[in-house]
Design goal:
heterodimer; A: alpha+beta; D-Maltodextrin-Binding Protein, domain 2; Dipeptide-binding Protein, domain 3; 2 domains; seven-stranded mixed beta sheet; 18 helices; 21 strands; B: mainly alpha; MetI-like fold; 12 helices; about 70% helix; about 0% strand
Chain lengths: ~550, ~270
């Protein structure tokens, strides 16, 4: 009877399929970095490779769950934002230790913030906290609490701490002493890094087993994507975190179980017209580009469905506006992608005095509508998009010249000389909070690409966007912020300073040897739950 | 090797004829996107299938070959003329003139070509048609490629200038221009021919390289560079052998140019 009961319990556990119960400890996870990390100091991480190492090794007070997009406690058990968004107080976990055994306390949080905000360090992570001039106050409170006060309110303050890896104030290993699931065990410059399991990592699975399950992570530096693909198919690496559509389809053709399309990502591809008043463009072209009807007409003449289907092989979706639908909270669900409607486009153009003459679109002064779009050379997806847009626009009598430039020349034109007519580029978006887009939407900002660094807003709608962006940044009420940013999205949708084209899907490839991998749209797509990943027993033994 | 040379000439003539008659032979425009037939396999309608955007690959090969095959020799001619002028004058004049001109040539040779091409390309006006863009690309290649050839021609001209028959011509009263035009230039012809034929495949390759960098001929006009870009990822080619046609054609054409060169035109 006992045997029957034991078998029943075992079968029940298997049937429940709990990953934690089945998880196999040990083994070495392999994947590739596309370049060498520029730094191992988590406060200075700016490139993808350094951010990968920071994510795998750094312990943070709070973490944005990449699946739910909700904020979750990590090294802090609780936190509270007060003083109108200027102050945040963390209750820090007791009894934790860094990877080298140094005890962790609220002092380390204060030390990290002090380092982070040191102007001499030039920390890219720290920039997000610099809302205005003034000193940041760090106060260690009794009972392992720490209070951080900023000189001005910061909207979405708590979420910014997702990027702040806490460093030890006392460890002789300095930034190499970490609180994350792994620590840097070996670093062979230009070749590979080996991250070893942090024996002092604080988190345990529901069964009480220490995390992470995987003993070590080997990061091979490999720029060539073909070789990376070959290594995946040979089983030498376990996943590719981010794939482009072409490679994704190859993986799917070889082994559909390995290919993961998580849906639309936060990244977008867009084009915009040069609206800089002082640009060296002829006045009639400036008049075209500053006309809302003209921009809307161009937008409606572009077949976004075809761009997504052909250029991205169906692994993209027509973009709606500045926020991707992947951003669950901030996306304005009332908006739809602009439809492909060349009839409507011609009607809008007619309203502005344009007319078709022998198949050529001309403005009211008789100038044939012809302009160039620049994009960066070597990016075949953008070149293909531009070529497709070229054919779409030719259907309404517009001649589009596609010009590919090396990246420095392109940046020079769009930021300094303003000697260009239209530009097609992409926006890589890591942040969910609209505050990350302040530098794009404020008319005074450098990255307000269509007309940067304005002294006063050039148009009424830009003034309105300025007002709304500042309003959402100065309140802590999420509903009010959402309402304000929804209006910004509506204005951007109506005025189309950026003609949003597509949101690319988050594509990845994961070997079946990796358990509990649930690729998501937010970075890092595959290893966001690194401490929960495990390898099959066979792989774990062989590695 | 006479048969090989003859075959090469016949092949080049056949390819050139096919390209010149592209408007008649091609089943579709090189630019038209058949968006419901992207990456199609060869068929009666599209003998070499279609590319990523659904454009007829056969039409693009014909037009692309026409672009590269017409403009590369034109650029080679420009280069050879510039090299003949600079190298011939320097070699014939000798002394300080030669040292000065050759110093300038050396400076030109030491320039990083690729970066120079990229920079010049970036400085050009944006609103130019693809045809003008391709003309500019090859004109730049022609203007920048003369220095190496000029050095060879200079050396040859210097040797000729010191030869007995030139001495005899001088003694017979031939002056500067007559000496240059009637005695020196005819004797430089074999070197100039050789430089011309060497330059043709070099420029085809250079345009292809620029195309691979995305800095060649503007869309939608095809060239061998843009056609070869389809092959930049080796995993793309597997299972689609017809994609190799532009590469095979390119190799055959470049090889044919070299075969044509093997007899008669090489300097002795």
């Amino acid at each position: 009877m006992k045997k029957v009961l034991a078998t029943f319990v075992l079968l029940t556990l298997i049937a429940l399929g709990s990953n934690h119960v089945l998880a196999q400890s040990g083994g070495e996870l392999h994947f590739c970095l596309r370049s060498e990390p520029k730094t191992l100091n988590p406060l200075l991480a700016a490139d993808d490779a350094s951010e990968t190492v920071r994510y795998l090794t750094g312990g943070v007070l709070v973490r944005v769950n990449r699946l739910t997009q909700e904020l979750e406690p990590e090294l802090a058990t609780s936190w509270k934002v007060t003083n109108g968004g200027k102050t945040i107080t963390f209750q820090v976990r007791d009894g934790l230790r860094f990877s080298d055994g140094t005890p962790f306390s609220a002092d380390d949080v204060a030390y990290t913030m002090q380092q982070l905000m040191d102007p001499a360090l030039h920390s890219p992570t720290g920039d997000a906290f610099r809302s205005s001039e003034g000193k940041v106050e760090n106060e260690v409170l009794p009972k392992n609490r720490v209070r951080i006060t900023f000189p001005a309110p910061i909207a979405g303050l708590d979420r910014l701490f997702d990027q702040v890896a806490i460093m030890s104030a006392k460890s002789p290993q300095k930034e190499l002493a970490v609180l994350g699931p792994y620590f840097v065990g070996e670093n062979k410059a230009g070749s590979y890094l080996i991250l070893k399991r942090n024996p002092n990592y604080w988190e345990k699975d529901p069964a009480g087993r220490p995390l992470p399950y995987i003993e070590s992570v080997r990061l091979d530096i490999q720029q060539n994507r073909d070789i990376e693909m070959l290594r995946l198919t040979r089983g030498e690496i376990h996943f590719i975190n981010s794939l482009d559509a072409e490679y994704f389809d190859k993986v799917a053709a070889q082994d559909p179980a390995m290919a993961h399309d998580a849906g639309a990502s936060l990244d977008s591809e867009e084009m915009w017209f040069n609206q800089v008043a002082s640009s060296p463009l002829p006045s009639y072209k400036k008049a075209w580009f500053t006309s809302t009807n003209f921009r809307r007409a161009i937008s409606e003449s572009i077949n976004r469905e075809d761009l997504a289907r052909i250029v991205f092989r169906g692994h993209a979706r027509p973009a709606v506006g500045p926020v991707s639908p992947a951003n669950k909270f901030w996306f304005n669900a009332k908006l739809q992608a602009h439809p492909f409607d060349q009839k409507s486009a011609l009607q809008r153009l007619t309203q502005d005095g344009f007319h078709l003459q022998d198949g050529v679109l001309k403005d009211r002064d008789g100038h044939a509508v012809e302009f160039s779009v620049i994009t960066n050379a070597g990016n075949k997806y953008r070149e293909r998009m531009a070529t497709m847009i070229q054919q779409d626009l030719s259907d309404i009598g517009i001649k589009l010249n596609v010009v590919t430039l090396d990246f420095p020349s392109l940046i020079e034109r769009i930021t300094h000389t303003f000697d260009y007519e239209a530009c097609l580029l992409g926006l890589v978006n890591d942040e969910l909070d609209p505050n990350a887009q302040m530098t794009v939407w404020l008319s005074s900002a450098d990255s307000h690409q269509w007309n940067p660094s304005q002294k006063t807003p050039a148009t009424a709608w830009e003034a309105e966007i300025d007002k709304l962006m500042r309003a959402q940044a100065s309140t802590l009420d999420p509903k009010k912020r959402k309402a304000d940013f929804d209006k910004v999205q509506e204005i951007a949708w109506q005025q189309e300073p950026f003609i949003y084209l597509v949101n690319k899907n988050a594509l990845s490839a994961v070997s079946p040897a990796v358990h509990n991998a649930h690729p998501v749209v937010l970075r890092p797509q595959v290893y966001w739950n690194i401490d929960q990943l495990s390898l099959t027993s066979e792989v774990a033994r062989n590695r | 090797m006479k048969w090989a040379r003859t075959t090469a000439i016949v092949f080049l003539v056949a390819v050139s004829a096919a390209c010149l008659l592209a408007n008649v032979i091609a089943p579709a425009s090189y630019a038209h996107q058949f968006r419901e037939e992207t990456n199609a396999s060869p068929s009666r309608q599209h003998p070499l299938g279609t590319d990523d955007l659904g454009r007829d690959r056969f039409a693009r090969v014909l037009y692309g070959t026409r672009v590269s095959l017409l403009l590369a020799p034109a650029a080679a001619l420009l280069t050879s003329l510039l090299a003949a002028f600079v190298g011939g004058i320097a070699g014939f004049a000798g002394g300080r003139v030669e040292r000065f001109v050759m110093a300038g040539t050396d400076l030109f040779l030491s320039l990083p070509w690729l970066f120079l091409l990229i920079t010049v390309r970036a400085l050009l006006p944006l609103n130019v048609s693809p045809i003008v863009s391709v003309l500019i690309t090859f004109a730049m290649l022609g203007c920048l490629g003369w220095a190496g050839a000029a050095r060879i021609i200079c050396a040859d001209a210097r040797a000729l200038a010191q030869s007995d028959f030139i001495l005899l011509a001088r003694a017979s009263g031939s002056n500067g221009f007559r000496l240059l035009w009637h005695h020196l230039v005819p004797n430089l012809k074999p070197v100039l021919y050789a430089q011309f034929w060497i330059s043709v495949p070099v420029f085809i390759l250079t345009e292809a390289n620029l195309g691979i960098l995305g800095l060649g001929v503007a869309e939608p006009l095809p060239s061998w560079g843009s056609l070869l870009r389809e092959l930049e990822s080796f995993s793309t080619i597997s299972g689609q052998a017809w994609q190799l046609v532009p590469l095979i054609l390119f190799i055959l054409v470049v090889s044919s140019f070299h075969l044509v060169l093997t007899k008669g035109e090489l300097p002795v």
